[in-house]
Each structure stands twice: as structure tokens, then as C-alpha cells.
Design a protein that fits this description.
It is a single chain. By secondary structure, this protein is an alpha+beta fold. The chain contains 27 helices and 26 strands. The longest helix is centred in the first third of the chain and has 46 residues.
């Protein structure tokens, strides 16, 4: 359909529309005629008038034909809406006579300004039905759809045929693999004719051969290894069981044919073995079985892992490692001389008991002290003193009821905790039996005469006297000293009335306060010598007091804890030791380059103002100071860090009395000391005791890689010095030099030993 539309909104339509462009030619000729000679003007004017008349007649005729083909109201409304909504020279879809078509619009300039109808504007609208426009596209679409469907059908048929051709050989290969499962030898697979499957089957055969070879090598290595190993594998998916020949023998069970076992029967058998054998679980969660056969005890570690429905177990003989661990634990927890608990182990065990009051029942804490040890040491020597202590410890161990916690606290002090009794009378009988046995025990002296063990003890009762171990220990210690100051060789119960006597309390408090206020303490210095050169390396400051009841540093520290005066003792210790040592340096009575060891309380640290005062007054000397820690109580980490970062401090620490029960491996890790002082209890008699020598070697083996120096303290004989001189870095003891207000040089005999070695 073609249509013309005027600018005023009226429409003209018809089957065909024709435009005459002759008038435009005439106008052009008129323009060009202006340039023609004047003789042609009249002729052109006449021709123009004639042509204009013809064109006007044709236009009027065209308008009449358009008027005859005026569209109906529906077409007129559709065309009007289309023209009103279109964009200029735009293209849109148009619906006329219930047919959808594509319409294109173009503006027409039909008239010049001076031509008739010049005030009218015309639009040319061209349409084509959508059925005609998309006929070719629909044909192409149908062809493509048919081609796609045909391709899919052919692909499906081809895939089915190919898959059926591949599945039959693959199924054959699968059946041959299943048939080979469980056989000792792996067969060669049949030829399928498919190159990839044949290559895959060949790869499976080669892989199985490699696995068998590697497994054989591994089993041979296990058989040849010095460590006894055994293992098993359970496959829950196939139900297969594999067990090495020595697995059940390692666990102390009769040999079983592994080929006859199922997963269920193997599990039941292994569970039975674990039930009849003592079993523990280590830190990693592995089970350690104790196997006793032929008077020999073995320790077997059983490690089990389960992944992807496969359980693998490994049994390993760890007897040597377990025995070494038990030995180390014994050295840690037990006194070397007597075999009883040391201080640290006693406190750990007793604290665990007091956390469970039901287990305690009626309990008693017995503290004992040997009466004649000093006399034996002075008369017969320290070796016989150790012999006396050993016999006492043996007597205590043999005559104490089962379950009694027995410990040697220090040189001649013993501590026993009786617990779990229904009443006080039953426990009293056990105490009296132990007392009689101790009194009857005899030690043969070098002179050949018999010496009965004389021991004084104090008893504190739970729960009457106290409900915690520290209170009971304090009261038992008080009762013991009451016996030692009156009638030795007896056992006496704690008397709260005596303990609270004002006279005794007033005296001790008065003297202690006098010690603090008047600074009634002074210091002796004991040299510490190099084991290689014999030169003085350091001096240890040792506290002394001239008050009658406070001559022992242990007594002073005890009162300081009771009176809450630990800080005052710590402050006086540092200030007085630095002051007196600086006085000796100024008089050239000590080596100016030597270090000074000062004992410190583990749970106390100086205030910053006190540390700054000491740094200002003894700045140079503070950088030569070594803080010596004896772990009599739990180490306070905050106090330790304050000590470590005190103004002017060198940062050097020494761990004192290592091996006495005061210190342990935890202290080494926490303190990270520069020096480790091995306790006198280990050094004494070390020349004749291989166990003590081994302990010292273990300490040296730990310290050397960590740049820690070993100090052997308490060296009192030439034999002891010859034994430790190759192991220790530094030496301290009466054999080299005694403590004194003005320290002496190294003893000539000790110097001679160093030169000779």
C-alpha cells in the first residue's frame, strides 16, 4: 500500500500514486532563462504558462482520484496513530485490514515556494506484509531445525553403537580383575582389540608387579631391621585381612594364620589381647601394651589409623625408649640417695590428694629430722653421713604402710603423708610401729660399733590441725623443732597452744623485725672458679645474721613468709650484697672483673624505684650481677619478667640446687638461665656413684647446645673434683675455698689438680 498524508492531518490513499516533477524542470528553466538573450524571453514565458496550466490540471485530477479512494475510519485511525507515534524518518510495524506489515515513512518535497499547493506537506508511506517479508527466513529456519534433529538422531545411534562396542571389552577386563583378586599371582589379561584398553590392562599388570616387588622389599627391610615391627591391614570394603607373621608374637599372643581371619574375628582377637594386657595411652593417643614373658617385660606401642574404609595398624617394640623415659621420670621425681620422692614430687602428689578430700579420710603429716648427722659427718666424713641417710630412707620405705607418700626434703629432713584411714586410732598404730622400727634400726660405723638411728619428728593431723598441705607442713615442722629443742629421738603431735604462745611468737617477731629495721645481716662471699684455668669467675653472696634465733637463712626465709616480709628481705639482700661487694672491690680484695651471684626469691620482684636507685649507685656492678633462683615455691612469671627487665640488670640468671627437688625441667624452660648449679646432693660422692655421674652428663648434654654453663657446687673432696672437672664449667665448694667476709684464693691442692688435668 502507498499513501500520501498532508501536514494538516488529512489523508490521501489509493492503489497507486504518481508525482509529476515537470514543474520543477520549468522552474529551473525559468532560472536559467534569465541569462538567455532577451529575444528568447517572450517564448519562454509563453511556454512556462502553458506548462503550468497542464501541471495544475494534472494535480487537480490527482486530488480528485485520491479523494475517491479515501480510507475507512478504522484504517484512518491506525494510520493516524502510526504517524503520531513514529519518529521522523523512522520505521515501525503497522496493522491495516487485520494484517501486520512493516512500514517505512519518507518526507516528500513536492512544491516550490511559488508553486501551487506549496503550503502542503506530503509523506510517502511504504508497507509490506510480514508474511512476505519473513518468508525466506522461515524457510531457512525450517531447514536448519530439520538438519539439527537429523544430526542428533544420527549422533545418538552412533553413540549407542560405539558404547556397546566399548562396554563388552571393558566388562571383560573388569571380570578378569575381580577374578584375580586374592590370588598370589596376577594373570595376564586377554586381548580386547581396543588399543587403549589393552594398554590400560598392561599398565595394571605392570603396576601390580611393582607393588608386589615393593611390598616384598619392605617386608624384607622390616625383617632385617633392628627394631621389631609388625602390622596389619583391614579392608572393610572387600573384607580382606593382611597380618605380618610376627604381629601376634609381638603382642605376646599365640601365632594365628592370617589367611583364616575375617575382619570381625581379627577385631575380636585384638580387643581380647588389649583387655588381658596392661594398656596405657600416650600423649599422641597411641596405646602402649605391657607384655611380660619369661621374666622379661616388653612395651609394645600399637598405632592404628583408618582412612577410606581401610584400617592399618603398626605394632612397634618401644621397650628401650619406654625404659629410658621411666628412668628419666624417676630421676626427676626420686631422690638419688634414698630412692624416696624428692621435694617437687612430694608436693605434686600431695596436692593431687588434697584436691580429693574423700581419698584422704583421716590423714597425718609426719616431718622427721636426723639427730646425729652432723656428728657422723664431722667424725667419719660425709660418705658415712650419706650411708646413714641411705639406711634411714630404706627403713622408712620398708616400714611405712602401703600408699604412704614418703619423701626426702633436704639433707636430713624427711616428710611422710599417711592418708585414707577411717579413724585416728588406726593411723596412730601405724605411726607407733614406724617409730619402733626406726629406733631398732642399726647402722654399723667404721669403728665397728652399732649406732641406732635417732630421728625427731612432728605430726600434724588432718583435718583437725589443718585442711591444706602447706598448713600441715608448717605445723609438723613446728612440732618437730619442739622435739629437737627438748627430747630428741621422739615423735610429738602438733600443739596449737604451744604454737600460739605469745612469748615464743613475740621473740621471733621481735628478732625478725629487728633484723629488718636494723639491717642485722651481713654477707660472706664464696668464690666460683673456672674448671679449666682455676681463675676466679664469680663470687656467691651468702646471707648471715648475728641474732640468736635467726642465724640460719632458712629460718629467716620461713619467718619472712609467715610475716609477709619477703619484699623487705629481697630489697635488703640486693642492697647489702652489692654494697659489701663494692666495698671489697674498692679495696682490691676481690677480682674486679668477676661476677657476683645474689640469691633472689622466685615470687618477688623489686619495685622500679628501688631498682633505679641501685642502678644509679652501682651501675657498673649491676651489669656483673647474676640473679640466682632457688625454686622453693611456684615460679611467678610476672615477677620473673620484672626481674629480667630491671634497670641496669645484666639479664643473667642462675638456677640453683638443680637436682635437689627444688628445680626441674620446667624451671629450665621458664627461666632460660645462663648458669645451672648442680646441687650438692649430686656432687657429694659422685666419684663413686655412676648414677650421679650419668645425671651430671645428662645436664651437661642439655646445657652445652644452649650456651648454659654448669656449676658444680659443694665440691668437698679431691676425688669429687677430679670426677666433675671434665664435665662442669665452673667449680664451687669447701675443697676450693670456704665462704668468708674476705674471700680466699683457690686452695693449693685444688689448683694443683687443675694444673695436672
Amino acid at each position: 500500500m502507498r499513501a500520501r498524508h498532508r501536514a494538516d492531518g488529512t489523508k490521501r490513499s489509493g492503489s497507486s500514486v504518481r508525482c509529476c516533477w515537470g514543474w520543477r524542470a520549468l522552474l529551473s528553466m525559468a532560472v536559467w532563462g534569465a541569462a538567455l538573450p532577451r529575444r528568447l524571453d517572450d517564448a519562454l514565458a509563453q511556454h512556462y504558462a502553458a506548462q503550468m496550466s497542464v501541471m495544475q490540471r494534472e494535480l487537480f485530477a490527482l486530488r480528485r482520484r485520491l479523494a475517491e479512494h479515501e480510507p475507512d475510519a478504522e484504517e484512518n485511525a491506525a494510520l493516524r496513530n502510526f504517524l503520531q507515534s513514529r519518529q521522523t524518518d523512522g520505521e515501525r510495524w503497522l496493522t491495516l485490514n487485520n494484517e501486520t506489515g512493516y512500514a517505512a515513512v519518507q518526507n516528500l518535497d513536492l512544491y516550490s515556494r511559488n508553486a501551487p499547493f506549496s503550503n502542503e506537506k506530503w509523506l510517502l508511506v511504504g508497507t509490506v506484509r510480514s508474511s512476505i517479508l519473513f518468508r525466506f527466513a522461515r524457510t531457512v529456519q525450517q531447514v536448519i531445525t530439520s538438519a539439527v534433529l537429523l544430526t542428533l538422531l544420527l549422533g545418538a545411534v552412533s553413540s549407542l553403537l560405539v558404547s556397546r562396542g566399548l562396554a563388552r571389552p571393558a566388562e571383560q577386563l573388569y571380570c578378569e580383575v575381580l577374578a584375580a583378586n586374592g590370588k598370589q599371582t596376577f594373570p595376564k589379561f586377554s586381548h580386547t582389540g581396543i588399543r587403549e584398553l589393552d594398554r590400560f590392562a598392561e599398565a595394571i599388570t605392570q603396576l601390580n608387579s611393582s607393588l608386589v616387588t615393593n611390598s616384598t622389599k619392605f617386608l624384607r627391610i622390616m625383617d632385617m631391621a633392628s627394631v621389631e615391627l609388625g602390622g596389619y591391614e583391614l579392608r572393610y570394603d572387600t573384607g580382606s585381612v593382611y597380618v605380618t607373621k610376627n604381629f601376634f608374637a609381638l603382642l605376646g599372643a599365640p601365632e594365628v594364620d592370617g589367611s583364616s581371619l575375617t575382619v570381625r574375628t581379627f577385631g575380636e582377637l585384638l580387643e581380647h589381647i588389649q583387655l588381658v594386657r596392661p594398656c596405657t595411652v600416650n600423649a599422641e593417643g597411641d596405646k602402649v601394651l605391657t607384655v611380660v614373658q619369661g621374666g622379661r617385660t616388653r612395651y609394645i606401642m600399637l598405632r592404628v589409623t583408618t582412612e577410606d574404609r581401610v584400617q592399618v595398624g603398626l605394632a612397634e617394640d618401644v621397650t628401650a625408649a619406654t625404659q629410658e623415659r621411666l628412668r628419666i621420670e624417676r630421676e626427676r621425681d626420686y631422690d638419688v640417695l634414698t630412692g624416696l620422692y624428692n621435694r617437687q614430687a612430694f608436693h605434686r602428689v600431695s596436692h593431687e590428694l588434697f584436691q580429693n578430700p574423700e581419698r584422704l579420710g583421716v590423714a597425718a603429716l609426719l616431718m622427721m629430722d636426723l639427730d646425729d648427722l652432723k656428728h657422723i659427718n664431722d667424725t667419719y666424713g660425709h660418705d658415712w653421713g650419706d650411708h646413714y641417710i641411705q639406711n634411714t630412707g630404706r627403713c622408712i620405705a620398708e616400714h611405712s604402710p602401703p600408699g604412704t607418700v614418703c619423701a626426702r626434703l633436704s639433707g636430713d629432713e624427711f616428710l611422710l603423708l599417711f592418708y585414707g584411714y577411717p579413724g585416728r586410732e588406726q593411723l596412730r598404730e601405724k605411726l607407733e610401729a614406724l617409730t619402733r622400727a626406726m629406733q631398732q634400726a642399726v647402722v654399723v660405723l667404721p669403728s665397728g660399733s652399732d649406732l641406732h638411728i635417732s630421728i625427731s619428728g612432728g605430726v600434724a593431723w588432718y583435718p583437725e590441725d589443718g585442711r591444706d598441705i602447706e598448713t600441715l607442713k608448717k605445723y609438723a615442722d613446728f612440732a618437730m623443732y619442739q622435739v629437737k629443742h627438748s627430747t630428741k629421738g621422739q615423735m610429738k603431735d602438733f600443739d596449737i597452744g604451744v604454737y600460739n604462745q605469745e612469748a615464743y611468737i613475740a621473740r621471733t617477731r621481735r628478732e625478725f623485725h629487728q633484723l629488718i629495721s636494723e639491717e642485722r645481716m651481713y654477707y660472706y662471699f664464696q668464690p666460683i672458679f673456672s674448671a679449666q684455668t682455676g681463675r676466679v669467675h664469680a663470687y656467691e653472696a651468702l646471707m648471715r645474721s648475728d641474732l640468736p634465733t635467726l642465724r640460719s637463712p632458712a629460718t629467716i626465709m620461713k619467718l619472712a613468709r609467715e610475716q609477709g616480709a619477703l619484699y623487705e628481705i629481697e630489697r635488703l639482700t640486693f642492697r647489702k650484697a652489692l654494697e659489701e661487694f663494692d666495698n671489697l672491690r674498692s679495696k682490691n680484695l676481690v677480682d674486679r672483673q668477676a661476677l657476683i651471684f645474689i640469691n633472689s626469691i622466685a615470687s618477688v620482684s623489686l619495685r622500679r624505684e628501688d631498682s633505679e636507685y641501685m642502678d644509679q649507685r652501682w651501675h657498673e656492678l649491676r651489669r656483673q650481677m647474676v640473679i640466682e633462683i632457688t625454686e622453693e615455691e611456684e615460679m611467678n612469671r610476672e615477677a620473673l619478667e620484672t626481674k629480667r627487665h630491671a634497670p641496669g640488670f645484666s639479664g643473667m640468671f642462675a638456677l640453683d640446687d638443680y637436682g635437689s627437688g627444688y628445680s626441674n625441667e620446667g624451671s629450665l624452660l621458664e627461666l632460660a638461665p645462663r648458669f645451672i648449679k648442680v646441687d650438692i646432693s649430686i656432687i657429694r660422692g659422685i666419684d663413686s656413684d655412676p648414677d650421679k655421674q650419668q645425671i651430671l652428663r645428662n645436664v651437661v648434654r642439655y646445657a652445652q647446645p644452649r650456651s648454659m654453663q654448669i656449676i658444680a657446687e659443694g665440691v668437698e673432696t679431691a676425688a669429687e673434683m677430679r670426677t666433675v672437672i671434665d664435665l662442669a664449667d665452673l667449680l664451687q665448694g669447701y675443697f676450693l675455698a670456704r665462704p668468708a667476709a674476705v674471700p680466699d684464693p683457690i686452695a693449693p691442692e685444688a689448683a694443683e689438680i687443675i694444673r695436672a688435668i
